[in-house]
Design brief:
Layout (H helix, E strand, L loop, with lengths): L2 E2 L4 E7 L5 E8 L6 E6 L10 E5 L21 E4 L1 E12 L4 H9 L7 E12 L2 E8 L2 E5 L6 H7 L19 E3 L12 H5 L18 H16 L6 H15 L3 E2 H5 L13 H17 L2 E4 L6 H15 L1 E2 L10 E4 L5 H22 L11
Parallel strand pairs: 1-9, 4-6, 13-15
Antiparallel strand pairs: 2-3, 2-5, 3-4, 5-10, 7-8, 7-11, 8-9, 12-14
């Protein structure tokens, strides 16, 4: 099942201008602090190289209104790979509530529908598969260097209305996915209508993980809950105490053993470019469940990143399996082992030193850390 945030979205801003990276924020209703996205991968071609702001024009009327997710369980910093990430979808909408649509369809009435563009954002994070699907959204494309007042306001955790944005319309307009060519509702019940057929996908969208891995993940999730469950303490404090305990006990182990069964994953040399990116996304999806992220520099291709994970990060770096589904995030970066990044950094440092020496005499300042 996917974690659907459709009906909780107030406003968001996404930047897809960096190499193999998607980042930004999404403000959810009822939450002062926004979700921050730091995804590893590219969006679909229509959003590649774009920066955009969005908000729902109307409520979607989907399942999240009846069964809202526990917002305390959603990681504030969302990491992992993107799935379908596009504004080019088309869906059919109708100008009545879902309940009215269902009732009239049961009576055999033909309800007028209209095709509208749909913003579909999907990624695989600490919370598994996450989806935001907004039919007919308010969508504004921004200049790459446009630092808006919206970003400043929402990043500051201000829960008041955001200036400069159109007000969300509160009327409820459900929709039908473009894959459904009929407006008829299945006679078996409303849940069949609400599902778009994608919610039943598991956390392995690329079919590269062993069959028993999900059972192993579920067992680990139960173990994590056992460590941190204390209803008298805020979850943040529980997770902090868990991390302190793990550090004191020194229970770190190689990431390769935490993820389990990665030995079956093929070598990069055995895959073409499409296959290696699918394998990379499957691996990043696993890692995200444990709060482990990879940042990719502009010099690394998906093949380079996959090789770097399989040959360097997973066998040599450590982590904690108890941190599955917690708020803790551990970042690894390809530029730490990228020769081109190192050369560029050294050139920039030498140029900076020359400028300082020519302007203010000799300088003994230490070189800055890499980003």
């Amino acid at each position: 099942m996917a974690l659907r945030l459709d009906d909780l979205v107030e406003v968001g801003e996404i930047n897809c201008t960096r190499h193999y990276s998607i980042f930004g924020f999404i403000k959810l209703r009822g939450q002062e602090a926004p979700l921050h996205l730091q995804l590893t991968g590219n969006p679909d071609p229509d959003l590649r190289g774009k920066r955009f702001r969005f908000e729902p024009r109307r409520k979607t009327g989907r399942r999240t209104e009846r069964h809202p997710p526990d917002l305390d369980e959603i990681a504030r910093e969302q990491i992992g790979p993107p799935g379908d990430f596009t504004a080019a979808r088309q869906v059919r909408v109708f100008d009545c509530s879902y309940e009215e649509f269902y009732r009239r369809s049961k009576l055999g009435e033909q309800i007028p529908t209209e095709w509208k563009p749909c913003l579909y954002l999907e990624w695989f994070s600490q919370n598994g598969r996450v989806v935001i699907e907004l039919p007919d959204p308010i969508l504004e494309f921004l200049e790459a260097d446009d630092h808006s007042e919206v970003t400043d306001t929402v990043d500051a955790g201000d829960s008041s209305p955001v200036p400069g944005l159109l007000t969300t319309i509160d009327d409820q307009v459900p929709w039908i996915d473009e894959a459904d060519e009929s407006s008829d509702v299945d006679a078996e019940g409303s849940d069949d209508f609400e599902s778009d057929g994608e919610d039943d996908q598991d956390e392995d969208p690329y079919g590269l993980l062993p069959d028993n891995l999900q059972q192993h993940f579920d067992a680990q999730a139960i173990e994590t809950d056992r460590y941190i469950r204390d209803d008298d303490k805020p979850r943040e404090l529980q997770e902090q105490e868990l991390m302190d305990d793990l550090i004191e006990r020194g229970t770190s182990e190689p990431l390769a053993s935490i993820l389990e069964d990665i030995a079956h994953l093929p070598a990069h040399s055995d895959l073409d470019d499409t296959q290696v990116e699918s394998a990379l996304k499957a691996l990043l999806s696993q890692m995200a469940l444990f709060g482990i992220a990879l940042d990719v520099c502009e010099h690394f291709t998906p093949r380079d990143a996959y090789r770097y994970l399989m040959e360097t990060i997973l066998p040599q770096e450590g982590g904690h399996r108890e941190l599955r589904h917690t708020q803790w995030v551990q970042h690894f970066s390809t530029w730490e082992d990228c020769e081109q990044c190192t050369r560029e950094f050294d050139r920039e440092w030498e140029a900076r030193q020359r400028r300082e020496q020519s302007g203010n005499g000799s300088s003994e300042t230490a070189p800055p850390e890499k980003p």
